[in-house]
Design a protein that fits this description.
This protein has 5 helices and 15 strands. By secondary structure, it is an alpha/beta fold. The chain has 2 domains: about 60 residues, no CATH class; about 100 residues, no CATH class. The strands form 4 sheets. Strands 3, 6, 9, 11, 12 and 14 form a 6-stranded parallel beta sheet that branches. This is Cell wall-active antibiotics response 4TMS YvqF.
Length: about 230
């Protein structure tokens, strides 16, 4: 019951707080009614309901306003038929993290012949990227990169040279390259979360190497002082 507050204001007791509707009280849509009607039609086709029972229940289905009125109409049917027709559950809020996928590729290759080449910082990698190092070095850093497609293939070829590919933890990577008097190294210990971009690294290392690694951890002030002497 209402309570008298300071200055004559009326307070509402806890028992009189606004009622929040439960799943059974949620309003049903036309699509919901059609789904329940299909369950009944299927049950009649299987011999579980007579034509008269079907007609009676369909009348109630199309007159129902809430899920609480719909569910009793299929309650005596096999459970497997009910799984897809339960009351709707709250949907998770959309992710607020920026997407890694989108945009057009800004560079499709990196070549180093007795020299060096790098791709790092904010850039967009196309679905296929070629890296070639001949007695030189190529550095590819995906830490701040975006991807034109959900899946990306990096074709890495190192001949008496080296290619270093940095892959952040929110990207899934698969390494399938092979080596001849050289090799592919992969120090990534974890896979990205579900739905993360996928990078497939393939190619050949001949008397050279391709190294796939996570981003370097930032050094703290004490470490810098020790290294600087």
């Amino acid at each position: 019951m209402p309570l008298s507050g300071v200055g004559g204001a009326t307070l509402v007791s806890v028992s009189e707080q606004p009622h929040l509707p439960g799943p059974q009280e949620m309003r049903a849509s036309n699509a919901d009614r059609e789904r329940f009607a299909k369950v009944l039609h299927d049950a009649m086709a299987e011999g579980r309901l007579t034509v008269t029972e079907l007609e009676e229940r369909l009348d109630h289905v199309y007159a129902a306003r809430t899920f609480g009125e719909l569910e009793p109409l299929v309650r005596d049917l096999p459970n497997q038929q009910l799984v897809a027709y339960q009351s709707p559950l709250p949907q998770p809020a959309p992710s607020t993290h920026p997407t890694r996928v989108g945009g057009r590729g800004t560079s499709s290759s990196a070549v180093a012949i007795m020299s060096g080449s790098e791709r790092k910082g904010p850039w967009t990698i196309p679905p296929t990227f070629n890296a070639f190092a001949l007695m030189g070095g190529v550095e590819i850093d995906l830490t701040y990169a975006t991807f034109e497609a959900q899946e990306t293939t990096i074709q890495a070829f190192a001949l008496m040279g080296g290619i270093e590919i940095t892959v952040p933890p929110d990207v899934t990577v698969y390494v399938t390259g092979s080596g001849f008097m050289g090799g592919f190294g992969n120090s990534i210990r974890t896979q990205g979360p579900p739905g993360s971009p996928i990078v497939r690294i393939t190619g050949m290392a001949i008397m050279g190497g391709v190294d796939v690694r996570p981003p370097k951890k930032p050094k703290n002030k004490k470490q810098k002082e020790i290294e600087e002497g």
